[in-house]
Amino acid sequence: MSGRAVRAIAPALAGTGGARARRALAFWARRPGLVASVLLIATVLTAAVAPGLFTSQDPLTGVPADRLLAPSADHLFGTDQLGRDLFTRTVHGAAESLRATALAVGLGLVVGSAFGLVAGAFGGLVDDALMRVADVLLSIPALLLSLTVVTALGFGTVNVAIAVGVTSVASFARIMRAEVIRVRDVGYVEAAYASGVRRPTVLLRHVLPNASGPVLVFAAVEFGTVLLAVSALSFLGYGAQPPEPEWGALVSDGRDYLATAWWLTTLPGLTIAATVLAANRVARALEAEETQDREPLP
Amino acid sequence: MARYVAWRLAQSALVLWAAFTVAFAALYLLPSDPVSIMAAGGGEANAVSDEQIADLQRVHGLDRPLWEQYLDRLGNALTGDFGLSVQTGDPVTEVIAEALPGTLQLAGAALVLAVAGGAGLALLATWTRARWLRQVLLSLPALGVSAPTFWVGLLLVQLVSFRWGLLPAFGQEDWRALVLPAVTLALPTGAVLAQIFARSLRTALVEPYADTARAKGASRARVHFGHAAPNAAVPPLTVTAVLLGNVLSGSVVVETVFSRSGLGRTTAAAVDAQDIPLVLGIVAFGAAVYVVANLLVDLAHPLLDPRVTVGGPAVAA
């Protein structure tokens, strides 16, 4: 990905070229939504890696005297029925939710790309067979396919991640295949073959790097969708088990207090919605850069 | 055309068979021992004696080689027999048939809302000349696809039912209790529809035929609704099957949030209890909905868009 955003920010960071830095500044200034999205994603990632930076309280043990307190300066998100600070639990939940999301996207990316690479590179019967498998995977509604895998593997965060990842394998495979077909007959690939390089090497060293841009952008696009799917499965009770905090599970935990403690469901849910919205906004920017950057091949 | 239909029918049957096989493989191959999972599914893991396990194995045919079970299940499935639910012992087909009406009602209402809302939003966003209104309208679908369905449902219950007391949150008899779940289920689907339709409308409005209509003196409304909208409706139609799948999937979450009985609730209960035959039956049903919807859309496509000619092997259009 050689996106304009990336190119624009790089010189600004390096501190060279006043004109380019000004252009970079203008690029971001025109897109306040994108700036906010990037900041939010950075915050959530930081919370996942180092929750201690945001809160010093324990996500698992509560203070019985502080049961079901409404949001205040002491407890930004209020407290739950056991007197645990909900903000702390939401911050600590980021790690679990994002780990599952990253695992699911990673699974789809790696397995799907491998299938797509093989299908596109070999063509013929292999291609036909693999793409028919992709068609079949797409014919089962995503959540039902996930639930099938959860039923077979059992509950837990990792199993939920695998279940969600399986549903995006087919889409990744299709995109990778299309890209591989686009670059497989290009001059430098033919040159590599002509100079005696073996097929696996050509595929990994020349085809894959040049085909991976749109696939990586799609991974960014998938991030929001996958986070939603992971949260939904946790909400249904198939993911992280109590008392472990996880975003979808937090919303589910608050269901019994809908009438009395609105914050228990509203605030963790809002966190999920905001993260997905921000991730989608960033993905859309990357996508726009990608399509714009797509030069006609030599 | 007849050959094309026959070819598409055969293709659909093949996809359905493959979907059944994938689900069977996932459910029967992945766990090392489906019986103990099934036995443990009902309650505590060790509450089942060895005889009971052997019994279960015999009833569900799990004591036989896997390929034999597969052929058996597949053969029975072709006649509409998906075996017995582990939870209740009732035939899977009956369980699904019993749960279906509740979900059809919910999904039907949600689809009507999604199409009306999504299309209305897209039409209004491309019609209005007010820049701010257009931008607000076009940014709404992004919110719709980002909000978790279960959260939207709970928010609606909290505000509309508990705080304002406008509509009942739960219950199945009163039509008013259908409003909130239907809105919740419609939101993500309507948002996707609005995005696709708005994009295709904007393309259609600058097509040469729109200019021709304008040059011939057609009013703005005539060009917009008479010429551009019907043509722009084709891209959203082609994703009908995916949207139906989304609604079916969404019903699992929505029915859980609103405690409605239906196929979604049944699905969640089946996964909870690791009721393998029932899960297999429901997945096959979901795949059938997708495949049939796709088939119908494909067959209708040439009628909607004369430029599309029927494809397939050696078929003269």
UniProtKB/TrEMBL annotation, chain A:
From the Swiss-Prot or TrEMBL record, state where the protein is found. Answer: Cell membrane
Read off the Gene3D superfamilies from this record.
MetI-like
Residue ranges of domain ABC transmembrane type-1 in the record: 94-283
Q: Does the keyword Transmembrane apply?
A: yes
**Keyword Transmembrane carried by entry:** yes
Query: How does the record classify its membrane topology?
Result: Multi-pass membrane protein
Gene Ontology CC: plasma membrane
CDD domains referenced in this protein's UniProt entry, alphabetically:
TM_PBP2
Q: Where are the transmembrane segments?
A: 33-54, 102-126, 133-152, 158-176, 215-240, 260-279
Look up the record and give one Gene Ontology term from the biological process aspect. transmembrane transport
Matching entries from InterPro entries are given as: BP-dependent_transpt_permease, MetI-like, MetI-like_sf
User: Which keywords fit this entry according to its UniProt record?
Assistant: Cell membrane, Membrane, Transmembrane, Transmembrane helix, Transport
Highest rank taxon of the organism: Bacteria
Pfam families per the record? BPD_transp_1 (PF00528)
UniProt record similarity statement: Belongs to the binding-protein-dependent transport system permease family.
Can you say what this protein is called?
ABC transporter permease
According to its UniProt entry, this protein's organism is Streptomyces radicis
From TrEMBL, chain B:
Cell compartment(s), UniProt: Cell membrane
Please indicate if the UniProt record lists GTP-binding as a keyword.
Answer: no
Give the matching PROSITE patterns.
ABC_TM1
Q: Which residues cross the membrane?
A: 104-124, 136-157, 177-198, 278-297
Keywords, A to Z, come to: Cell membrane, Membrane, Transmembrane, Transmembrane helix, Transport
Checking Pfam families in the record gives: BPD_transp_1, BPD_transp_1_N
Q: What is its main location?
A: membrane
Bilayer topology reads: Multi-pass membrane protein
- Could you mention a single GO BP entry for this protein? transmembrane transport
- Tell me which family the UniProt entry assigns to this protein: Belongs to the binding-protein-dependent transport system permease family.
- The entry's protein name is ABC transporter permease
Q: Which organism is it from?
A: Streptomyces radicis
